[in-house]
Each structure stands twice: as C-alpha cells, then as structure tokens.
Amino acid sequence: MKAILFSAGVTQVAVSLDSVREVLRRPATAADFETERAIEPIRGRFVKVCDASLLLVGKRSTNPLSKTLLVEMGSQFLGLSTSSVSRIFEYEESRVQPVTAAYSGLTPRYCSAMISIPGRKDPVFILDIPNLFAGEAGNTAEAPVPSDVTQPTDKQSGREGKLVCFKVRNCEYGLSITETVEIIRGRPSHFVPQCRELVEGVINLRGAVLPVIDLRKLAQNTEIPDSSSTKIVIVKFEDHFAGLRVDSMTEVLQYEETSLEPVPSSFEALGRHWISSVLRVEDGRVVFTIDTSWFSKNVA
C-alpha cells in the first residue's frame, strides 16, 4: 500500500494514497485559519478545510499552511492543510499495529494505528478516514453556491488519473501515481564507471541498489544545487526500478486524460523525448508528463 506522510505539528501522520484526491498548494497570500475549520472553493466545489495540526493534535501550526490534502470518502470531501507534506512511501499492511500504551497519550485525533518507518525514531500514526469523516460530518457548514459555479460530478467525461508533480528548475513535471513507488530525501549517489550516460550513480535503498537519473541535467539545468536539498522519486518502469532526482515536490494532481495535449514539435527538436504530453492546469500552470518507457529504453 502507498501513503502520504504529512506533519501535524511535530507529529507525523500518514494517510492512504487511495483516500487522497489531490495534494494542493495553498496560495502564498493565504492566511492561516482564524478558526479550526473554514469553507474554501476547491476545483469548483465548496469544501471544508481544516488546519491539520489544530484538528488532529489540538495545537495550531506555527508554520505557514503551504499544502492542502484533499481527502475523499465516497462523495464526501475534506481538506487538511499542513505546513509539510514530506514524502510518499510504500508499506505492507502486516507492519501496521495498534497504538501501544507508550504512545496512547500522544495519539493524534482520528488515528488508531501506527507504523514504524526505517530511518525514523518515532512511529508514524495512520489516519482513520472513516473515523475522520464520521467525526467531521456534523461540522460541515453549508455554503451557497454562486450561480456561475458549476458543481462538477465525481466522474466527468474521460478517464481520471493522478500525477505526482515536481519541479526541475522553473518547469513542472508530472509522473503517473501508478508508476511512482515512493519519494525520498535527496542523498549523494555512488559513481559507477562505464554506466549509461544518463545515470549519475547508484544508491542503496533498503538493500536494493538503484540507478539515479538527475533530471536537472537532462533538462539542461546548468545550475546544479547540492544533492541534499533535492528529492528522489523512485519509479518503476516495466520490471526495473530507478530514482529520478528533482529539485522539489509540488503536489499530487487529479486530472482527466482528455485534458492531456500532445507535445509540441519544438520539444522533440530539443531532444525532450522523455516528455509524453502537456497538461494545462486550471490555475494557469503547465505540467509536462514524463514518458517512463523512454527511460526504460535508455537507462535499463
């Protein structure tokens, strides 16, 4: 199973990726909540949005709320705003355990289980989505819908998908959530002589040796920052695994396949064969989707 890790104060909480509709960036001018809950327009619908720290651990976040996780259950939606969405990780259900007595007084609200993640001293608490919606359903405020706003149906025309979005320099790229295994903090790779030109080196990830491709170099970025400030997206293409080094993560984006556009011919002239399509987002951004089959042919 896959989950997204976010912060509720100093506590780390995980929510199943299946329950996350999107991870949205909050506007830079958005103020922190004056109350525990607010009603905000998201993707054409009015959604109750909560300060995750205040809701789950009873303490208002001291950092700006820069990301909002839009979680869903059936036709219900709820926004959890946090100062940090750190990573996507994969885990086995057998590793999940009930909250032990040692952490009973520290358990966030709406969490009844926890999991230990390698490299972390303290456990990560798992958000109970049915419990969350059951507890918050009675607190949903009704907001009048303006006549010029159309409430979208859950399944509009075309198939839907999710993109894990990240930045390389000033461009934003997206990778299908089905091809994304996890996201880890950047770390130096080990150089390997006579490996493929695109491969910067290899890393040891929990006993597995994986090649790392620096997308910053592939995207012709001449200003390469220190690797510790980057993220590595672990991807799977066909039967191979690899890491893609990027500058920073932005969000998990829900989209319709009908909104994807072909890559302009000018991109092929630049050798950008690893871009498969272009997605125009409602807020004016452009996201270039990555073709992992190209990496399979040129890296594996």
Please specify the SSE layout and strand pairing:
Elements: E1 2-8, E2 11-16, E3 20-25, E4 37-42, E5 45-51, H1 52-57, E6 67-73, E7 76-82, E8 85-90, E9 97-98, E10 111-115, E11 124-127, H2 129-136, E12 160-168, E13 171-176, E14 180-185, E15 199-205, E16 208-214, H3 215-218, E17 231-237, E18 240-246, E19 248-256, E20 260-261, H4 265-269, E21 275-280, E22 286-290, H5 292-298
Q: What is shown here, in short?
A:
With 300 residues, the protein is mostly beta strands.
Describe the structure.
With 300 residues, this protein is mainly β. It has 2 domains: 2-139, no CATH class; 160-298, OB fold (Dihydrolipoamide Acetyltransferase, E2P), CATH 2.40.50.180. It has helices at 52-57, 129-136, 215-218, 265-269, 292-298; strands spanning 2-8, 11-16, 20-25, 37-42, 45-51, 67-73, 76-82, 85-90, 97-98, 111-115, 124-127, 160-168, 171-176, 180-185, 199-205, 208-214, 231-237, 240-246, 248-256, 260-261, 275-280, 286-290. A 6-stranded mixed β-sheet has the order 8-1-2-11-10-9. The protein has a 6-stranded mixed β-sheet with strand order 19-12-13-22-21-20, with no helix packed on it. The protein has a 5-stranded mixed β-sheet with strand order 3-6-7-5-4. Mean pLDDT is 81; it is low at 138-157.
Summary tags:
mainly beta, OB fold (Dihydrolipoamide Acetyltransferase, E2P), 6-stranded mixed β-sheet, 10% helix, 300 residues, 22 strands, 5 helices
Question: Strand-and-helix sequence, N→C?
Answer: EEEEEHEEEEEEHEEEEEHEEEEHEEH
Helical stretch count?
5
Shape: globular
The residue ranges in which pLDDT falls below 50 over 5 or more consecutive positions are 138-157
The total domain count is 2
